[in-house]
Amino acid sequence: MVEVNLAHHRPSQVISLRRVEALQEVTPSRIGAGATWARLEQGPYRGLAQAARTVGSPQIRAAGTIGGNVGTASPAGDGLPWIAAAEASIEVRSEARGTRVIPWRDFFVGVKRTSLEPDEIITAVLVPDDLPEHEEFAKVGVRNAMVISTVSCLVMRGDDGIRVALGSVAPTPIRATRAEEMINAESSLSDAALDEFARIVSQEVKPITDHRSTEGYRRHAAGVLARRLVERSLR
Amino acid sequence: MNVTIKINGEDRAVDVAGAESLLTVLRNDLDLPGTKDACEQGECGSCSVVFDGDVVCSCLVMAVDADGSEVTTVEGLGTEDDLHPFQEAMLAEGGVQCGFCTPGVVIAGAHLLEENSQPSEIEIREALSGNICRCTGYGAILRAFETVARGDV
After folding, report:
1. What is the rounded distance in angstroms from the CA atom of residue A123 to the CA atom of residue A112?
2. How big is chain B by its Cα radius of gyration, in Å?
3. Residue of chain B whose Cα is closest to the Cα of A2
4. Chain A partners of B132 at a C-beta cutoff of 8 Å?
């Protein structure tokens, strides 16, 4: 709608999906694309609920959906690090070719660019059934409400180790795979190990300097957030 | 496309084009200019309305999405002779200066007070976090909530 209001797009035809209730369902394995942030704040996914809670304002959370976040594919999309950490897939559908399930890595291809075809709609985020037990999200921005992330981070911790996903530090949401490998090879999470982990996260991200922040600040904040969330997941 | 929206209790039929926003339809087609048009990107809250029970930015709602829905605008909150208690309290406390944010603030404030007659300061600040006021510094607006909660209006 913002792009329409600013006259960047003038669609001659629109289809209203607001009343398609099946698109709003949230289950342990599937999040309907029409699920609002206000709905996702209620769970059942803890990290996603934490992220939902930080989106915009009550007005935005009542209207904005995870499907909109996925389709917009902003590097700063607050729901996207959770999708990356969960190894979720995006379910899309066209009348001509039916349903496609696209792993998140193949769906997000660049800044605000996805592999969605023009005749497809996003129907759901599909959630694997072996999610790690612990999920923690945090983001950095210039104020508390109505803020676009400068850096966002989602950490999951479970039997298979620690997963770290970040937003606003690359064209798409990313996983800090080198930092994950390093920390998951440690026998204990000592202060020294966590320092090294944060250093690798900072190295591994690929942020830019723009009107919201600088590359250097984003690298620093990415390491701080990742380390803090790992510590939080241990409490 | 023809849509029918129940606005302030009255069914209103209107022909909307493309992805036109609910805000432009309210202001331009339905003669309801109380809902203000400022940022057009959901940041300022001056276009807040109650939409099927939720406060939303009407600039971010497609008018076609509002077909069959219920909308309350500031015009439906009270009349000059019979203001909503929160509107009375805003006047009494000086919560209005330039007035541009006020329709959105009273929509969000009245909605909170209807759901929670004794909100805490944190709950008030949270409910107002999508409504930007550049004049008052919010102090007088916060006092207006206390005035209503005490039953002084």
Report:
1. 18
2. 15
3. B41
4. 146
Min distance A67 CA to chain B CA atoms (Å): 15
B140 Cβ contact partners less than 8 Å away, ≥ 6 residues apart: B90, B93, B94, B95
Domain A134-234 has CATH 3.30.390.50: yes
Q: Check: CB of residue A154 under 8 Å from CB of residue A135.
A: yes
- Residues from chain B that touch A12, judged by Cβ atoms under 8 A, are 18
Any A CB within 8 A of B18 CB: yes
Residue A225, CB-side half-sphere exposure with 13 Å CA sphere: 29
Of A1, A6, A15, A53, which to mutate for an interface test with B (greatest number of B Cβ within 10 Å)?
Answer: A1
Tens of pLDDT, residues B33-83: 999 999 999 999 999 999 999 999 999 999 999 999 999 999 999 999 999
Domain boundaries, chain A: 17-126, 134-234
Q: How far is CA A83 from CA A107, A126, A155, A197, in A?
A: 11, 9, 11, 22
pLDDT band at A12 (very low <50, low <70, confident <90, very high): confident
The reply to whether A189 touches chain B by the CB within 8 Å rule is no
Q: What is the ipTM of this complex?
A: 0.92
Distance CA B51, CA A16 (A): 15
- Model-level pTM? 0.93
Query: Which pLDDT tens digit goes with each residue over A117-139?
Result: 999 999 999 999 999 999 999 99
* CA atoms of A201 and A3, how far apart (whole Å): 34
Is residue A226 within 8 Å of residue A212, measured between CB atoms? Answer: no
Residue A53 in contact with residue A142, Cβ under 8 Å? no
Q: Do B127 and A58 touch (CB under 8 A)?
A: yes
CB-based contact (8 Å) between A158 and chain B? no
Q: What is the CATH number of domain A17-126?
A: 3.30.465.10
Which residue segments constitute the domains of chain B, with CATH numbers given?
2-76 (3.10.20.30), 85-150 (1.10.150.120)
Dist. CA A54–CA A161, nearest whole Å:
26
Question: Buried b / exposed e across B35-66, counting CB within 10 Å, b at 16+?
Answer: bbbbebebbbbbbbbbbeeebbbbbbbbbbbb
On the 0-12 / 13-18 / 19+ scale of CB atoms within 10 A, A173 is buried
